Amino acid sequence: MDCMPCIHLWEWIRDPDGLVEDQPNNVRFDVDSENVQIDLHSDMAQKVLDVETLLNITPITGESTDTVQNACRDALIQIVKNQKPVHETFFSLSSPHSVESRLNAEYFELDYLATIFTCQALAYGNDEFKFHTMIDAKKVEEKLRDIYEGLHWKKLGESLLYPVVFIRYFSELPKLNLELATKNYLGGPLDWTKIHEDVQAAIHKMTIPANISRLTLGEVEVYHGVEVIEFIMDEPRELGLWTTEAPDNKRVQRPKDRCHIM
């Protein structure tokens, strides 16, 4: 079945929080060689706009960029940032994505993905305090490969596709038969560089011992990435990702350094 909307689908996919006005109420499709106009609020839309149709109407730009897939992948990264194991330490400024509340993904361990994905950014960050030496990059890649090549990754892609595209048009999304998921709609591995800056900021976060006054005139030993160490000693260690290495995160701070920071 060849389906192509007459509207620029990606123009309203790029606005998942509904900030764009004058959004379309209907879409025209070519279904089985017949031109059909579908009211997005109608029962017919629930029947016609299935996963296969959505995949067929995915827009490809002139640069061969799959706009809908990129929107799904970006949404997933934002959802990952808000998982409990990593949110407070690395992504405390990140807000929940608008599709998360409608994402039916009980079968997929998002907190597990969040932990492994963040460990990947740690392992490849090559930071000055050598936090990257604490994570076994090879084991991280093995666990990520199991995720990205698994059936649940395909199910997650189809689960994300519906709310990312139609979250603003349906109060209830059509039910999906995820047992039939055959397409890897999310594509390959997520790009760890998209969280690199957040991870590095957590590593560089400085902690001054509680018994030291910030007004002291002497040199002070400070520690970077204390919360990152606590993170690694929790789930990553239980998953066998810790190499037993320790970071070189202690620095001596002079009074003029503290004045500059303050």
Could you describe the 3D structure shown?
With 262 residues, this protein is mainly α. It is built from 12 helices and 5 strands. It has a domain at 68-197. A hairpin with a 2-residue loop joins strand 1 and strand 2 (34-39). Helix 4 packs across helix 8 and helix 6 (110-123) runs antiparallel to helix 7. The chain is elongated. The termini are far apart. The model is unreliable at 1-38 (pLDDT under 50).
Give the gist of this structure:
The chain contains twelve helices and five strands.
What profile does the largest beta sheet have?
3 strands, antiparallel
Elements, N to C (H/E): HEEHHHHHHHHEEHHEH
Kindly report how far apart the N and C termini lie: 63 Å
Low-confidence stretches are: 1-38
DSSP summary: helix tally: 12
State Rg: 23 Å
**SS elements, strand count:** 5
Helical content (DSSP H or I, runs of 4+): 40-55%
User: Strand order across the biggest sheet?
Assistant: 3-4-5
Percent of sequence in beta strands: 5-15%
Give the overall shape, derived from the CA principal axes: elongated
Structural class: mainly alpha
The residue-averaged pLDDT reads: 76
Q: Which terms summarize this structure?
A:
262 residues; mainly alpha; three-stranded antiparallel sheet; two-stranded antiparallel ribbon; 5 strands; 9% strand; elongated; disordered N terminus
Layout of helices and strands, plus pairs?
Layout: H1 9-13, E1 26-31, E2 34-39, H2 43-48, H3 51-56, H4 67-81, H5 84-90, H6 110-123, H7 137-148, H8 151-166, H9 196-204, E3 206-207, E4 220-224, H10 226-232, H11 235-238, E5 250-253, H12 255-261
Antiparallel strand pairs: 1-2, 3-4, 4-5
Helix pairs in contact: 4-8, 6-7
